[in-house]
Amino acid sequence: MSFARSHGNSFHPESLAGRRILVTGGTSGLGLALVRAAHARGARVGFVARTASAVESVARTLPGSVGIVGDIAQKTAIHRIALQAAGRLGGLDVLINNASSLGPVPLAPLADTECEALEQALATNLVGPFRLTRALLGALAASAREGRGSVVLNISSDAAAQPYPGWGAYGASKAGLRHLGEIWDQELGDLGIRVLSFDPGDMDTPLHALAVPEADRATLKDPAVAAGEVLGVIVSTLAALLASHPERSEGGMTEGMPPSLRSGCLGRRSARARARGSSPSSPTTPSRASPATTSPGSSAPATC
Q1: CATH number of domain containing 83
Q2: Which domain holds residue 181?
Q3: What is the pLDDT of residues 265-301, one digit of tens each?
Q4: Is 170 considered catalytic here?
Q5: What element of type H or E holds 49?
Q6: Is residue 74 packed enough to be buried (19+ CB in 10 Å), middle (13-18) or exposed (0-12)?
């Protein structure tokens, strides 16, 4: 991937220097890996998590990062989180909606799922990302107007496209998030904001351990690897946005979008989905998000 200079700063393919990024669920699993990787690539990183001690611990290890204590599942917390993020980061270029809830633990059929467990999954995986994205639209649109590019990336799962018994609360909420993101992407395109979904596959994370405690960890993806993939998608998407408006490109990222950018919702099909013969739509176009695809070699829906 190559990047040509326009005006302002130039960006190395692996760099996110100066980009202002907010990650939810940023003290564990994929979220923590994303925070560390973005920080290492020069981004100004903010992250949200519920536990104050965990937020403080991560912030101490990453100088200059912005830790915010809050629960995105709580309506009353959203505007405080948004104001702190935009204020302390000096704006926002990228929002990564990563925080997730399984719903019932251990996993349960829908008939055995308590209403409160379903509500928790919906609040964390669907309604929370909607509220936070909506609260941050002003900051994201301002970034797009300034020629910095603006991206919202929702962490998805093959359970968003494929029904798995026992995963009803999680799957329904992730399916809703995927569809919500596709609509956001259509509606916000004229503002220069892209909204994407990404399925990182089955990872060795605490959430996956809760869902599938018997899983062989040696077969699971390292969250650091998945974080690199997510940030690669973000860099490529920013490049595409700036290439489409070179006259207002601050960063000068212009060329070399990979084939994976042909789909707004990225990832690969799981072994279970392949065995069932499902055929989610193939990536076809770089302009809008397409239906979710799934992850490689998984025996259960991918979680983050």
Answers
A1: 3.40.50.720
A2: 20-276
A3: 444 344 334 334 433 333 223 333 333 333 333 445 4
A4: yes
A5: strand 44-49
A6: middle
